[in-house]
């Protein structure tokens, strides 16, 4: 099976745009976001109360109906994020900012602290909402990577993702 960059699932006025490092090899083979069987992304979303049920990777396009979109800072699939080059990050940072400015999601959820570091140029931030967004008027929210390589306990990850809920609903004001 050949490996290719995967399509963004993005549209105007999303509730949440999830941003990963880059597609896994499995995602590049299947064309679906977070498709590696060891990735806990869809399980975390469901347990955090962000989805009414646990979706499968091949249903990633269906999450647009919930107001959730997907993109990555780098399009090239790799085995690990360590394989991403500085040039790919530089290019990806510019393209990601353009996507956020164009589509203006309510919340941009960075699925991995390193993703946000590469995007913002900032270091040492905590989990959750960031105080000075790169794109004004957008809530930038940092979550742990859902990769199976991450050693954080699932319940800790779910709690951090659950924190997005108050910001992702237009009828609620962000605090």
Automatic annotation (TrEMBL):
<keyword id="KW-0234">DNA repair</keyword>
<feature type="domain" description="Uracil-DNA glycosylase-like">
    <location>
        <begin position="9"/>
        <end position="157"/>
    </location>
</feature>
<dbReference type="InterPro" id="IPR036895">
    <property type="entry name" value="Uracil-DNA_glycosylase-like_sf"/>
</dbReference>
<protein>
    <submittedName>
        <fullName>Mismatch-specific DNA-glycosylase</fullName>
    </submittedName>
</protein>
<keyword id="KW-0227">DNA damage</keyword>
<dbReference type="InterPro" id="IPR005122">
    <property type="entry name" value="Uracil-DNA_glycosylase-like"/>
</dbReference>
<dbReference type="Pfam" id="PF03167">
    <property type="entry name" value="UDG"/>
</dbReference>
<dbReference type="InterPro" id="IPR015637">
    <property type="entry name" value="MUG/TDG"/>
</dbReference>
<keyword id="KW-0378">Hydrolase</keyword>
């Amino acid at each position: 099976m050949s490996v290719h960059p995967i399509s963004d699932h993005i549209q105007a006025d999303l509730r949440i745009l999830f941003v990963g490092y880059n597609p896994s090899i499995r995602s590049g083979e299947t064309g679906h976001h977070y498709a590696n069987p060891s990735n806990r992304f869809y399980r975390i979303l469901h347990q955090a109360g962000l989805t009414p049920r646990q979706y499968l990777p091949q249903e990633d396009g269906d999450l647009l109906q919930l107001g959730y979109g997907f993109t990555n800072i780098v399009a090239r699939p790799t085995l690990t994020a360590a394989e991403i080059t500085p040039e790919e990050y530089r290019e990806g940072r510019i393209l990601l900012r353009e996507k956020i400015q164009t589509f203006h999601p309510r919340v941009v959820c960075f699925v991995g602290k390193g993703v946000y570091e590469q995007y913002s140029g900032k270091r040492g931030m905590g989990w959750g909402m960031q105080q000075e967004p790169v794109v004004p008027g957008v809530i930038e929210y940092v979550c742990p990577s859902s990769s199976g390589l991450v050693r954080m306990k699932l319940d800790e990850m779910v709690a951090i993702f659950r924190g997005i809920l108050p910001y992702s609903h237009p009828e609620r004001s962000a605090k």
